[in-house]
Protein 1
Amino acid sequence: MHTRIYKLEYNNIDGKMIEEAANVLIEGGLVAFPTETVYGIGANALNENATKNIYKAKGRPSDNPLIIHIANSNDVIKYARDISKDAYKLMNKFWPGPLTLIFKKRDIVPDIITGGLDTVAIRVPSNKIAHTLIAKANIPIAAPSANLSGRPSPTRVKHVIQDLNHRVDVIIDGGNAEIGLESTVLDVTADIPIILRPGGITKTMLEEVVKEVQVDRALLEDSNHQIPKAPGMKYKHYAPKGKLIVISGEENQVIEAINQWTKEKEDAGDLVGVISTYENKSKYSCKNVLVIGSKYDPNEIASNLFRVLRKMDDRSIAYIYTQAFFEEGIGIATMNRLMKAAGNKKICL
Ligand code: TXA
Ligand code: MG
């Protein structure tokens, strides 16, 4: 398949290109586009064949349901039913933005979208290009992250091209995905909303709008035996090709341990990399040190995680060492993705 690449300027979006991309979606094709979280690969959510092609293009298991993206939050009632007061409050506050809500679904939503569940995931992206495209197509757009299944989610168009060139009709080059981690997934079908996937909208932010929010027990550290309620969370995900090793403990000890292990590996002839904050970069002796951001800026660390993991792959690094990052605010989502990329193992010093 030939993939067309449309370069759009965020502050001056070319109407003709948007119209062409929207027509591709209307006609059942696949369009990869930027959102504020990560790039997505979109198809008409009401067209089963088009949606099937998403799974094919990604190589994704089809029991893993997709998020429906809409441009206008009023459209939510077309696809969801039994919407609670709390859910409306959350929509008012956080849409458009990086919050996906899980509702009871209406019959119009095909089973292929929901993996056979009786619930549906919906969000309104705030990225202007995504928003303009969905509004123009005027259909609900199913869009998982635009990576091959299992690989780190794409935050740059370059990553999308690496994974999906010749697998989709159009890739929209619309600059970098700002947040860099996928949306928070929140189940609002029960009395107390439950976070199924942590993201940029944190528990504290949600609890400023509704009284109480729970966290899916499968996300808590001591609960390896729990099956996550978001089907996507059970797969090995976000993983670089090399082996990722996460180390937690007192910072200087962690650095010392990483220096010792990277030296051993380098001496044995392996390609080794370290993910570091700006502040610690000069303390590592390894040849390949990639900076993820400032230790004082958790948003910067979140936004660079997937990019840094992919860069390690570009350099064919076989062993990647990183300190564990501070688990507060968006740091919880960063560590959730990092731990999944590391096969949920961490060395505690
Ligand atoms: O930020 C995002 O959400 C990005 C951008 C492109 O919008 N999309 C994204 O989609 O991350 P995806 O398909 O990679 O992840 C969707 C997550 C999966 O963990 C999936 O299992 C969960 O949402 N999900 C979807 N429908 C669900 C449902 N009905 N019940 C529970 N979890 C659901
Ligand atoms: Mg994904």
Note: The pocket of magnesium ion (ligand 2) is lined by residues 144-145, 153, 182 (CB under 6 Å).
Protein 2
Amino acid sequence: MQSIIFSFFDSAELATAIAKYCHYEIGEITLRSFPDEETHLKINSNIKDRNVIFVANLVRPNDKILPLLFAAETARNLGAKSIALVAPYLPYMRQDKQFSVGEGITAKYFATIISNYFDSLITVDPHLHRLHSLSEIYQIPTFTLHAADLIADWIKNNVTKPLVIGPDRESGQWAEEVAQKVQAPFVVLEKNRKSDYLVEISIPHLEKYKDYTPVLVDDIISTAKTMIETIKQLNKAELLPPICIGIHAVFSGNAYEALLQAGAAKVITCNTIRHTSNGVDLAEQMAKEIKKINL
Ligand code: R5P
């Protein structure tokens, strides 16, 4: 029987686009809170013996996870053949190690919870820094898509003479791949994060790039401090106002506005998290992957 797609938490646009490409049915689920804020949910579509796909925007995940797991359990009880989670932005990937005694390794714990409720996971450019692959922490098959090709296409179509910049060593992996595809020069900067909101960036001599458009590329923009500090340094070096590209538009608080105010010429993100800055559409790529793995 044909697979069926359910959308969770502001994912309707993406889920509908995927369903259209794959010719899958969109499932109907009602999720609401009781007055005491506990969750009531009801799956209204027939899912017995069908492959079920949940598309979920999991940015700011804490309030979403319990309803999501309840929905997965409900789907299981209703006889779903398999349940795949499409989480284009995969949260809880940054605390992948104990930096000081007593800290929880939440990337690992989150992976275990998801692995207990879903049969597979599809995501886009997870923040793999010290981990090499999701299989190190997830116990289910995982499928990872990369936004580099489409980001490179966006740069080719919109920027003349780009200089691709990775604001820190971690972002280097994404920025370098994009730079190669665009065939543009590439530099990676040094970052020293002193706290959540305090970041120092040092840049090398960039005089020879004064007539280039700097294009900052990073996987996540959260507080935007990484990009804002980079812009300050680029200004000091008298480079042109940069275009800031992030894969995942996490944007805590007023980070997006602050980034524009800091002097970004443009802010572009992928639609892994719905946001006004979305300029790179990954729906078709996700749909193709879902088809390929035969869901
Ligand atoms: C670093 O670990 C990531 O690649 C990003 O640079 C980081 O998440 C950006 O965070 P923020 O926007 O809070 O500076």
Note: The longest strand covers residues 213-220.
Protein 3
Amino acid sequence: MTTTEKSIKSIAPINIAVVKYWGKENEEFNTPLNSSISVTLHVKDMCAETEVVADSKFKEDKLFLNGREEDIQKNKRVQRCLNMVRSKPTLKRKHNEDATPIVRCHITSANNFPTAAGLASSAAGYACLAKCLGHVYNYEKDLSVVARLGSGSACRSMLGGFVKWEKGKCPEGSDSCAVQIANEHHWPELKVIILVVSSNQKSVGSTEGMRRSVTTSQLLKYRAEHCVPGHIDKIEKAIHSKDFPMFAELTMKESNQLHAICQDTYPPLRYMNTTSHDIVNLITKYNAAKLKAAYTFDAGANAVLFTLDEFYEELLSTLLKYFPFTNTEIESWINMPSSQVKELKTKAAELPDVCIHEDALQRIICTMPGPGASVVVSDE
Ligand code: PMV
């Protein structure tokens, strides 16, 4: 018996939302209650890598995540992605092509950053999966829709730079997809600093958290109808015109609103911890005279900060001063040579009333906007 084998590898970035998605309109199709906007972060600092091998001699599909085999049949999200790319057009079905056996595949995926700690690890993973499955199964439609079926925010990791996930109008979500606002080269002065506060798994996953908010939070409904459309409009304009103060203010207000909804949820959801609030306090004081940095938090304790080139060293230095690291192995704590870290120490801003929080951060990742999911190797 002859076999046909196809294999493909892809890498995909994480993204950080500046207009947040929180709440599903339809759980089965994974469509959102509101549109959202994110910045894709560079794959050189954090990415997921996935390989899909499809072979007609495979008896079943298999899934390996970070080196461990998972039960792929029980994984509804992966099943939804597989069903989408393997579904045949109605036209072919009429010609009895349903009898053709499905070519099974083996999926291997790994992340180089903490899984489920509010760093959108699933977004990178499902963007990779969609990219690979699209190639292996010759799927010609929008792959951001396939990624969305795995994890909503994953659709935004398909594209680089500044990305909008359009809520869409079709009930089954065929137009609930990602569109690029501007590519990763659009705003080179914009810098991103990730403060890893915790690499623990979040206590309530985003799907369960959203479900709880949708059923109990009145604020969530108000936000989706009355706040998000204006925020989307303004932040798109701020991105196009590189208006940092506008971008920074909206980013922080959006983050505050997401966590206010979490607090309004019953029972309440708590993703930010005391260190997260200490970071908010530091950035607020740092911005007292002029907006120089913005914070944002997803469903986890880790902070993502935005700043501009001109404030970058001062901000980093200020962070090192108020959140110092006492261990000697600086290289495993910040992705920057220790000589550069030493030089930075002199540039910190003086912030009255801000306490020093020793060893409160597990890691600092300095990064920037980057490209979307891409294929690494293809041997067809
Ligand atoms: O894509 P999910 O189901 O992991 O949800 C992500 C939700 C937030 O990260 C909190 C916000 C967002 O828009 O990414």
Note: Residues 325 and 359 are 5 Å apart (CA to CA).
